[in-house]
Structure formats: structure tokens, C-alpha cells
Amino acid sequence: MKIGVGKFRGFMRISNGFGQFQMLALDQRNSLKKMISSQKGNFEDEDLIKVKRSILKTLSDKVSAVLVDGEYGYPENLKYVFHNTGIILSAEKSGYVTNEKKSSDRLSEVYRKDVGMLAKKNGMDAIKLLIYWSDESSQRAKQHQMKIVEELGQICYDEDILYILEIITYDVDENQKAKAILKAMKVFSAEKYKVDLFKVEPIVTKSDFNLKMEDIFEFSNGKPWVILSGGMDVERFKDIVRWNCQIGASGFLAGRVIWKGAPAYIEKSELMDLHLMTTGAYNIEILKKNASEAIPFFKAPYFGGMENVELNV
What pLDDT is attached to residue 101? Predict the structure, then answer.
């Protein structure tokens, strides 16, 4: 399997020594604003920067990579990232735009048009784009989402930087959630989108799942995938991590499940640091333990083993 040197180095930089992903997300913006506002009644930009800095300072040495946004604390906060930890830049604006003709449509947008080139120029290891996807959305919305994924995918290919696609499904019954996630992965696993790694909602959330590893990889075109937490509690998410790794996930890219208690101490920096150094660190370690069966990215069928990887300059 041929892959650009830059993309391959991206895979290596954001994974651990076994090729598994144990990644920390702190690109939240709107959700973090709400958390801070609920604590102090309002928020300032510096509040978001402060929380993100504290998280990087205390936890970045415990994960294989961190996901940051380019709007709050970038690039100054990068000084607090542990030197061996990979860095992923988020490409999208926080939230979504609705369609005037169909209000349930959710349209994603990049926060700046040159984000792909910026990430490469600034030495980022990967770039991540979040899109919302529903089979019930209008054709116009689907075309918009597919276009934005394809355009950024081409830029990442041209710049030879790893491309992560995060898919959030909506307007779907909970009993059909797994099917919706897999169908969305199937759409964007087409080679024209040039996605290297999928970040998706947990495909299995109960212990009585009957999906098999080969079933999942059929939908992802053999490409590796990781799960997100959606802000659930760690006691629930740790089991979900284990179950999804047993059916082929290569790890996790999780945020609030790890650090959501920190904004409660927004006005007491030393207590926020202490909370993250103790509870936050514990949350990471318990997730890593439950992700021990994660499939190394290079063992995903798309690669078929490190011995089958051919690097392109």
C-alpha cells in the first residue's frame, strides 16, 4: 500500500509505540463556552485559552496526540504540549450552519480557507475535519458536506499531511445508530475523499454486540478508525472503548470524558491544575487500559501490515 511520507509520519507521530491511538481532544469551543458560562455566568476568550492551556500542561504527556483548534490559544498554547506528543489541528468552525430551505440540515464550514496549508506550514502532524451527516438531510446538504470533505482531502493529499474525518450522525433512531455510522463511513471511504483515519461515534454501546471486525472494515474500506466520547462519563465510556477496540477500533480521540470537571475551577487555576493532574490523569489511564486491544493502524486491512507499506516522496 502506497502512502506519502508526510502522511505516514503523521500516523507515527499521533500513535503510541504500538500504532494505537490514545488521543486527547480539546478543540471544543461552543460546548466549552457553555460549561464556563454555567460556572461564572459568562465567558471571555481568555477563559477558553486558560482551560486549554491547563489541559495541555498537565495531560499532554500522557497521550499519543492532542487535538487543538486554531482559534483559542493557537499557536501560543503549543508551547505546553509535551515534546513527544503529536498535534492535530481542527479545521472546522464550531457548530454548524442550517439550511434556509430545510432547517434540520447541518452544514459544516472550515474556520479558514487555507487551514490545510496552514497546518502543514506550522508543522502539525495531522488535520481533522468534523462533518454532520444524516440520510434524512436534503440532497443539497449532502452535496455540501461531500464537497467540503473532498476539497480538504485533496489539499491534505497535495500537502502530504494526514487527514482525519470526524462524522457525527443525526436524525436517526438510537436503535439504528450503528447502521447510520457504518453507512456514513462507507460513503466517505471512497478514494476520492482521501480520508486516512475516521473518528466516529461508538459503533457498539452494549456488551451483547454481534458485529465482527471484518464487518466494520468492509464499511471503512479497510481504513483505521477511532471512537469519540461525546462527553459521556468515564465509567460508561471505558467499557465502550474496550468493546469497540474488540471489533477493530484503533483507539480513541476523546475530550470532555477526560477533562470536563476542569472548567468548574476556572477562577482557581491551581485547583484546575490539581483536578487535571489527578482525576484527569486517572481518566486517561483507565481509558488506555481499556484500549489495550486496539488494532494498530498498520494492521488495518488497508495497510495489511507495516511490511506492506510503501512510502512515496
Answer: 67
* Separation of alpha carbons 162 and 278, rounded Å: 32
Q: How many residues does the chain have?
A: 313
Element (H, E) at 197: strand 197-200
Q: pTM of the entire structure?
A: 0.97
**Residue with cell string 488495518:** 300
In 160-210, which residue ranges form alpha helices assigned H by DSSP?
A: 177-188
**Residues 6 or more apart in contact with residue 161 via CB below 8 angstroms:** 6, 7, 10, 116, 119, 120, 124, 125, 126, 127
What percent of the chain lies above the pLDDT cut of 90? Answer: 95
Q: Are 188 and 182 in contact (CB under 8 A)?
A: no
The CATH architecture annotation of domain 2-312 reads: Alpha-Beta Barrel (3.20)
- As a whole number, mean pLDDT of residues 50-67 equals 98
pLDDT for position 46 = 96
Q: Amino acid letter at 12?
A: M
Domain ranges for the chain: 2-312
Beta bridge partners of 87: 66
Tally Cβ neighbours within 10 Å of residue 171: 14
- The β-bridge relationship of strands 97-98 and 106-107 is antiparallel
Is the pLDDT confidence value at 299 over 90? yes
Q: Summarize the confidence of residues 135-143 as an average pLDDT.
A: 94
